[in-house]
């Protein structure tokens, strides 16, 4: 297995978290699969009514499992004895059918792990693993018990932003994910009616994985309530839409149904912390429908750790792709890059809500995306149009690699303080490091290379070429991550 490491990250502390923090770090299930169920998505032309559709299916005695009214699209079960490929070809030839596609699996991005956070003592003091207040910033905008752990908010100027606007309850952020813990102390007061597309009770999109609860808290957790964390948009509301099961896996038809349902039920913003799925016309149509209903859609750029030509759904038309940075304003070691990246935001060791009134750190572009979605919620609350919101987010972003857009950072790392003031009028801030910040508990064992590994040094030796911003290493590891060696060291100019 090959992993791209950028050494601005505390050496391997997250990759090996499961080995260094006993019983505290666990992975969230959800590996990408392109396997198809024995069912096909069939989109019809607008003029074809139900009777015409059912008559066409009746010739082959096909069962209709579901119907997406927004797209006039049916989910059809494939009879025994017919292959998926043959069924797709036969359905696509029926007069009035725009296209037919296999219903494929979608999932959470792979590789995201979480570490539980100790809650504060009764006296309100921060837990032992709180670390220093990031950037030396005076945190005065909220009294949330774990606010000092949220280096991400301080990095993007959130305290300045919420001094201008704390958002509006009329702005609804739909979290299309594994659901949300409906009774969480830091989320329950922020929820509007959602929908469960996975289980039998559609009215209770309860999280049975953890990922969706974490994402929701980043975007819009209850703020200034003396508990837990602060949300990026304090007054925005959360629409929980469960499209992934307890493993973090579902089928594209569920994701598409979730998007059209959210768009039809008042969502202004959709967060998709889902990735690595096959390209799909049906998925693109679901996104286009939501955009046509006035919805802004944000999706994670991916966690491959290297360049990608595309990442579905992030690279589809109408989606704003978000990559991830670390505490030092460098690309997080896991983040994907590519021509589709629009923005970047903190996504490394992000503290947020976790089921059963708990809190956890998680790293991934799944975390950077809802942070941008929440700041977009602040801008929407100011009455700005979707095109204005995107332009402001891009124009106000901190250009981490000078000279404009690039494939690692897009237009730059978001700056909420500048954004809510209109974007480009304030002076361009400089990228900053966060000295001494380490969110991991003091019991964590620092990683050191095995005796057989190629040694490496960081920071670069004093004899390094002037002008280097750092090094990147290609590291080979076995599947259990307990034997890693450096195969190549490259300067990052």
How would you sum up this structure, described in words?
The chain is α/β, with parallel strands linked by helices and 493 residues long. It folds into 2 domains: 2-30 and 125-419, Peptidase S8/S53 domain (Rossmann fold); 37-107, Alpha-Beta Plaits. 20% of the residues lie in helices and 22% in strands. It is built from 11 helices and 19 strands. It has helices at residues 17-20, 50-58, 84-92, 151-155, 158-162, 211-220, 252-264, 281-292, 365-381, 386-396, 416-419; strands spanning 2-6, 25-27, 36-44, 63-68, 73-77, 97-107, 113-116, 172-177, 195-196, 237-242, 249-251, 269-272, 296-300, 319-325, 341-346, 350-354, 358-362, 470-477, 484-492. The chain has a 7-stranded parallel sheet, with helices on both faces. Strands 4-5-3-6-11 form a 5-stranded antiparallel sheet. A 4-stranded antiparallel sheet has the order 2-7-17-16. A hairpin with a 6-residue loop joins strand 18 and strand 19. Helix 6 (211-220) runs parallel beside helix 9 (365-381) and helix 7 (252-264) packs parallel to helix 8. It is globular and about 65 Å long. The two termini are 26 Å apart. Mean pLDDT is 80; it is low at 1-26, 29-34, 121-140 and 435-493.
Question: What is the strand and helix layout of this fold?
Answer:
Blueprint: E1 2-6, H1 17-20, E2 25-27, E3 36-44, H2 50-58, E4 63-68, E5 73-77, H3 84-92, E6 97-107, E7 113-116, H4 151-155, H5 158-162, E8 172-177, E9 195-196, H6 211-220, E10 237-242, E11 249-251, H7 252-264, E12 269-272, H8 281-292, E13 296-300, E14 319-325, E15 341-346, E16 350-354, E17 358-362, H9 365-381, H10 386-396, H11 416-419, E18 470-477, E19 484-492
Parallel strand pairs: 8-10, 8-12, 9-10, 12-13, 13-14, 14-15
Antiparallel strand pairs: 1-18, 2-7, 3-5, 3-6, 4-5, 6-11, 7-17, 16-17, 18-19
């Amino acid at each position: 297995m090959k992993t791209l490491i950028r050494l601005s990250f505390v050496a391997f502390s997250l990759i090996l978290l499961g080995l260094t923090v006993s019983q505290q770090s666990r992975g969230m299930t959800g590996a990408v699969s392109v396997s198809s169920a024995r069912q096909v998505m069939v989109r019809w032309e607008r003029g074809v009514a139900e009777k015409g559709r059912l008559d066409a299916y009746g010739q082959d005695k096909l069962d209709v499992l579901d119907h997406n009214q927004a797209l006039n699209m049916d989910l059809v079960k494939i009879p025994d004895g017919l292959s998926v490929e043959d069924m797709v070809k036969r359905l696509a030839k029926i007069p009035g059918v725009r296209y037919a596609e296999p219903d494929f699996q979608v999932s959470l991005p792979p590789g995201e792990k979480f570490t539980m956070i100790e809650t504060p003592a009764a006296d309100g003091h921060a837990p032992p693993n709180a670390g220093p207040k990031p950037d030396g910033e005076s945190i005065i905008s909220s009294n949330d018990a774990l606010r000092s752990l949220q280096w991400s908010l301080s990095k993007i100027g959130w305290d300045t932003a919420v001094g201008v606007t704390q958002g509006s309850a009329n702005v609804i952020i739909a979290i299309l994910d594994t659901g949300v813990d409906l009774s969480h102390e830091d989320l329950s007061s922020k929820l509007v009616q959602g929908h469960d597309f996975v289980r039998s009770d559609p009215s209770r999109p309860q999280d049975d994985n953890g990922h969706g609860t974490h994402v929701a808290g980043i975007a819009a957790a209850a703020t200034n309530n003396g508990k837990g964390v602060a949300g990026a948009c304090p007054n925005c509301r959360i629409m929980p839409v469960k499209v992934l099961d307890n493993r973090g896996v579902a089928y594209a038809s569920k994701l598409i149904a979730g998007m059209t349902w959210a768009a039809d039920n008042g969502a202004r913003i959709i967060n998709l912390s889902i990735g690595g799925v096959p390209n799909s016309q049906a998925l693109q149509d679901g996104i286009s429908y939501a955009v046509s209903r006035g919805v802004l859609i944000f999706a994670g750029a991916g966690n491959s750790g290297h360049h990608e030509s595309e990442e579905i759904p992030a690279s589809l038309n109408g989606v704003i792709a978000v990559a991830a940075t670390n505490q030092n304003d460098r690309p997080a070691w896991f983040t994907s890059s590519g021509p589709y990246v629009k923005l970047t935001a903190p996504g490394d060791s992000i503290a947020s809500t976790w089921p059963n009134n708990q809190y956890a750190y998680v790293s991934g572009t799944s975390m950077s995306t809802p942070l941008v979605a929440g700041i977009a919620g602040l801008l929407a609350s100011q009455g700005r149009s979707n095109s204005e919101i995107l332009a402001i987010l891009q124009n106000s972003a901190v250009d981490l690699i000078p000279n404009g857009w690039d494939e690692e950072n897009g237009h730059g790392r978001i700056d909420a303080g500048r954004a809510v003031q209109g974007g480009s009028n304030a002076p361009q801030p400089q990228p900053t490091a966060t000295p001494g910040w380490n969110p991991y508990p003091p019991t964590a064992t620092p990683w050191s290379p095995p005796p057989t590994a190629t040694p490496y040094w960081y920071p670069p030796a004093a004899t390094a070429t002037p002008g280097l911003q750092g090094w990147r290493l290609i590291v080979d590891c076995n599947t259990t991550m307990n034997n890693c060696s450096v195969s190549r060291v490259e300067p990052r100019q």
